[in-house]
Amino acid sequence: MDVVKAVETYITKLVSTPSAMKVLLLDTHTTPIVSLASTQSTLLSHQVYLTDRIDNGKRDRMSHMKCVCFLQPSEDSLDALSAELREPKYGEYYLYFSNILNKPAIERLADADEFEVVREVQEYFADYAPLLPCLFSLNHTPTSDKPLYSSSPNMWDSIALERSVQGITAVLLSLKKKPVIRYEKTSGMAKKLASEVQHRIQAEATLFDFRLTQVAPLLLILDRRNDPVTPLLSQWTYQAMVHELLGIHNGRVNLSMVPDIRPELSEITLTTITDPFFQAHYLATFGDLGTSLKNYVQSYQSHSLAQSPSSINSIFDMKRFVEEYPEFRKLGGNVSKHVALVGELSRLVDRDKLLDVGEVEQGLATSSGSDFKNVQAVINNPIVPAWNKLRVVILYALRYQKTQTSNIATLINLLLSNGVSREEARLVYVFLNVAGSDQRQDDLFSTESLLAKGRSALKGLKGVENVYTQHTPHLSQTLENLFKGRLKDTAYPFLDGTGTNMGLQRPQDIIIFMIGGTTYEEARTVALLNQEAGNSLTGARILLGGTCVHNSSSYVEMIRTAAERFPASVYEPPPESATTAPSLNLNLGGVNTTEDVKVKTRTGALLTLISACIILAFTTMEFFDYRRVGVDTSIVVDRSRGQKLSVRLNVTFPHVPCYLLSLDVMDISGEQQRDVSHNILKKRITKIGTDMPASRGQDLRNEIDKLAEQRASGYCGSCYGGQEPESGCCNSCEEVRQAYTDKGWSFSNPEGIEQCVEEGWSEKLKDQADEGCNVSGRIRVNKVVGSIHISPGRSYQTGSRTFQDLVPYLRDDGNPHDFSHQIHEFLFMADDEYNPNKAKLGKDMKLRMGIADNPLDGVEAKTTKAAYMYQYFLKVVSTQFRVLEGKTINTHQYSSTQFERDLTKFNEGENKQGIFTQHGVAGSPGAYFNFEISPILVVHSETRQSFAHFLTSTCAIVGGVLTVAALLDSILFATGRKLRKSGGDGNVKLM
């Protein structure tokens, strides 16, 4: 999933046509896309001699040139293109759009093309900026004019939502992925985006008609608010550090503000496809970068000595100099660029005391030791810029929002007294209200290990140590949980309708989209994971994208501008947890403790014991009910299509030899399998029903190979008028028999066939004439209406009808044949039953349900007539078992009715009830299994009472029994006291 290659392929395609000098017109959106995925030399190699903007009205008319337009299908671009087509400046136009072009837009362009200069219109889905092979951006950095949020942090701006849907759709189409979608549950924006993307995929079903994979790709939509820490930190890897301190905008870095910078280095290009040094070290830490840059400079110096005039002493040296000089100049420019860039980074680190600030930031982000005093020291340091002070306080507030509220207030006051304005300081409250602990789905700080306090030195430029790269983005933990199957559906649910049991699968292709922007630190995490996965056999491929790529300043600016649209309460301190905690003082209905409750009686003691026994008994029964596994049965429509099922059979025919038996399969779709032998075993049996020793149904062919070796090498046997095979020769009796079958002839006289006489075919048939045959094995059939025929003689087709060669079967050779048979086993199997574990689970479930026996198992049919037909009509019902472990086992059940008839009787006359019965003349001896597929699916699901239900029932039992016992005790106590008061002799006593 390399987005750079995907977009590069699109760019190459669109500039390859036509093969002539051409102009490339772009808009504001596609210009950075082309610059990131292609180079000027690549465009020139495809005869692109001019690149311009579609909105540039000062372009000259060049009718001899062709024009290739690559535009985003936005209103501005369509307006500019329509104006261009009304007054064309070029001879022909080839229009390519970076996203889906709707029908009204096409009609609009057709109306504008009055001169009919448009030759081609296509959609090339490159509507995103490919920053790295594993990172893309929609280039939507939110501003007050182009906001991301609406009136709350959980609501989309409608234009931003549509732009994000278009960008994600383009990514999926360019990579040819149709994913299932998961999203962050607590983020309303994530759910809305997931729904819109799913709707767009369904609306454009023809575009997303890709080849299905075993495990569908995954689109995981996350919200930046769940991890506000990562974009706030100072960065210490090359690419992330350049973006943090200088800014990378579509692969370009502006160095014009750098002191004493050379003019040619005022703006540099920094991409992995054009810069080999950057490609090799963009993930390197700042400490390692110093050593790598030193080696790079030394390599350049050695090349400089080799290119010096003193080293040119011959014609060969001159030729080598001319050939290597362009590459040498390119190397020199690249060295100068990186030396200037790393030098400026080093200057900014020293000027802004970023080593001190970064250590405190890492401590706050990773629990490695930064405390309140360290933060105070940073704020009180006059050299540290106010911007860095604000970032440190925001990090402190996000970490200790619930535990050190008084310290947060102290730090805000300290900010105000150290050069930070009130407008800037109130951003601390904005962050807590927008991305504080109450708004985050996950806990960013509880999972950090205390072992992170270890600081093994990583010596390099300016003494940078690995203490500055301790932090890992929260995305890393999310991906780890996903790989290990621990990413809970409750926290990251699948979108409705994307499928069932998807959480049990491990996706190989994962596309992550971060609403609110991603970072280069997260991109580095993904790149390293992809490198690790590339070295393993089952590694997943990850692609990261976002609305934009943030550094700390752009992220804070996004929150600042968004807060202006939110309610004014976003600037107020968030409510503290201590003041909002619920009271634990429960008023249980105003029960008063009276003297009556304290009176001990023998009646009360007895009722207490009885109540305890009842509670124990009922709770025990409830516990057994809770542990009991039940089975719920439901019937749904079987929506499976294009499936196959297996038929496993074992049938014995005691009076038909194996060489006469033929097993054929045909179904309503027109598919026919004749004389099936694959996975079918024919076993010869004696007259008394025992197995022939070491025999199989193909023993007639055992000596054919020996006979073939004795014949001359050029031997070509006759087919005796039968349908000749491609070779034109029938060299064995079996091949002659097959030729007769293909011709539609009966093979009744093997004594007249030379090959059969040499092979002793007739003698062997006579030896087997009084034998029987056992047919067993497994057949694959389509899941449609069909039939399985076990009949005598080989089948052949004439016209649209199928016939059997019955002559050998019906011939009177002294050994009468009939189709008496015994069915030992006959069942339908699903593919799941090839898995031993699932097969065992399915068998156990069938035994529990009482459906383990098959209707035809053990059926025995007897006849003494040769022309006798048995028909079995089977109704197959798909069945699915769902067990508590989450596994699903597919199987089949069937019902059976049977019919048999004597083929010599066409008219049976009237029976006792006066009903006249007559049969058709069609029919052949044999056993015929006709099956139909039911359109319903029977689902048996294991269920168990939930623990919450058990707990509720137990509480109800305890409460109910004690309430009734208390009521009885109160009645008995009151009655006894009244009787004692009313009794004159005072002898009445109640227990």
Structural commentary:
This protein has 991 residues and is an alpha/beta fold. It is built from 30 helices and 31 strands. Strand 27 and strand 28 (888-902) form a beta hairpin. Helix 14 runs parallel beside helix 17 (427-435). The longest helix is centred in the middle third of the chain and has 37 residues, at 315-351.
In short:
The chain is built from 30 helices and 31 strands. It is α/β, with parallel strands linked by helices.
Write the layout of secondary structure elements.
Elements: H1 3-16, E1 22-26, H2 30-37, H3 40-45, E2 48-53, E3 62-71, H4 75-86, E4 90-97, H5 103-112, E5 118-123, E6 129-132, E7 135-137, H6 158-175, E8 180-183, H7 188-203, E9 218-223, H8 238-245, E10 252-254, E11 267-269, H9 276-281, H10 286-307, H11 315-351, H12 354-366, H13 372-380, H14 386-399, H15 405-416, H16 422-425, H17 427-435, H18 474-483, E12 509-515, E13 518-519, H19 520-534, E14 541-546, E15 549-550, H20 552-563, H21 577-580, H22 595-598, H23 602-627, E16 629-637, E17 644-653, E18 661-667, E19 672-673, E20 680-685, H24 704-710, H25 733-743, H26 754-759, H27 761-768, E21 772-782, E22 786-792, E23 795-798, E24 801-804, H28 807-810, E25 821-829, H29 836-849, E26 860-861, E27 868-882, E28 888-902, E29 907-910, E30 916-918, E31 926-944, H30 947-982
Parallel strand pairs: 1-2, 1-3, 3-4, 4-5, 7-14, 8-9, 9-12, 12-14, 13-15, 27-31
Antiparallel strand pairs: 6-7, 10-11, 16-31, 17-21, 17-25, 18-19, 18-22, 20-21, 22-31, 23-24, 25-26, 27-28, 29-30
Helix pairs in contact: 1-2, 4-5, 6-7, 10-11, 12-14, 13-14, 13-15, 14-15, 14-17, 17-20, 23-30
